[in-house]
Each structure stands twice: as structure tokens, then as C-alpha cells.
């Protein structure tokens, strides 16, 4: 059982405080059928808690048998891990202040064998990268006792995205009642004008169910979750269109990305969104 590494930095270390922070809230929009996906930010609870709840509350009426958590690898991949480009943790779970989150070890090991040239068990990335762990208390609150299968990946090319999409399809085929959670921010940390323009473009593309990789290659979008989102776009279940609940920058929350956001410092945009039935 892994121990938590990022409490007190990204989320409360105290059990009671964390339980209060993660207490379920009423949904603003709701999904109705599985498989489904939600998009939530990865940032300190001081900044992202409202949006985390917006996303998870939208799925709380569902009854998933599995949660697949897709996170972004922000560090350089180790040469020794090639040719793999998708990573999962070893062990049987992780202990967080509010309890234990279990991994579906049989499914994970089956996928690792089937996608051996793409998927590898590597704990070091999960120690360094906080986006997976900071999302676990929310999953544990909204879907207690449901196993969680976390994956990390960097910026993937088209071939690698197809492989990731095939892996996700295999999971959905074996576990029909699955919820996919993408932990990602809308933009990189950029000057205000550029970040806001990219946030609008990102939202427009996801609402339309449009491809993302070319837009990323041309510098028009910079979300760290594009690989995961593009792999989900390739799924045959549900709609390819995302329904946005809320956006946030700094401490300001919006229903839509505004035309301008005046800020001298560099900024990052966050959001909560749902992808469900066609």
C-alpha cells in the first residue's frame, strides 16, 4: 500500500478537514449513463476545490464499478522506460488521510501484459507528479469503495494516442460501468492574453468534439490533458462533445471564458466539464 506524498501541499493533511473539504455537493449539471467522463483541474484545493466539486457532483448519481484516472506527466520520461509511454503504479492501492483507495490489480496486470510495449508499472512518476493523488480524496468521497486505476502520460503523438484509445476501449469493454476522470488544466501558465485566447479555443474544440493534436502542434492550445482527451474522443460510447460547467482563473469563476482577462502576471485557466451520452 503506497503512502500519500502530497498532502498538506495540495490538499488538507488533517482527516476531518479533508472530509469536510470533499463533502458531496449538489450538481449543477448531471451525467445519466456510464461509461462517461469528467474533466477536472489539478491544482491546490485552495484554488480548485469548487471546480473539483462541479465535476464530481455531475457524476455522483452514477454507480461506477471502476474509476479510471488519467493524469499528465509533466517531467521528462526516463530513457530506461522506453518504449512505454503510459504508466501505472504498482502495489494494491494508496493510503490517503481519509482512507484507502484500492487499485484493480487483476485488470491492471492484464492490461500491462496486453499493452506491454506501451504500458509499464513505474512508481517514481507518481511520487513526483501530484495530479493523481490530489484527485483521490474527491473520488474517495463521491465513490467510496470503488477501485481506481490511475495512468500518467506525457504529450503523445497520433500513434501513441491511438494506442491509449485502444487501451481505454478495452477497459470500457471489460467494465461497462466505468467513469473516466481527466485531471488537467485548460492552459499552460501563459501571459494573460494568450492564455485566455487558448482557453476559448480549447473550450470551442471540446464542445464541438473536434480534434486537438493539430491545434496543439500549431500552438493554439496548451492543455496538459490533450493526449487523454484525444484518446477519449476516439471512444465509440457516448458523445464526443463536452459540456462545460464552469471555468476559473485566479479566484474568479465564470460560466464561459471571457473575451479578456486583465492580469499582469502569467495565468492558467481551469475548468470542470462532463462528457456522457450521445
TrEMBL record:
Pfam families the record matches: Memo (PF01875)
| Record has Cell cycle as a keyword | no
Give the keywords, sorted. Answer: Dioxygenase, Oxidoreductase
Cited InterPro entries? MEMO1_fam
Q: Which GO terms describe its molecular function?
A: dioxygenase activity
Family per record: Belongs to the MEMO1 family.
For this entry, the protein name equals Putative dioxygenase
Q: Which organism is it from?
A: Sphaerochaeta pleomorpha (strain ATCC BAA-1885 / DSM 22778 / Grapes)
- Organism placement in taxonomy: Bacteria, Pseudomonadati, Spirochaetota, Spirochaetia, Spirochaetales
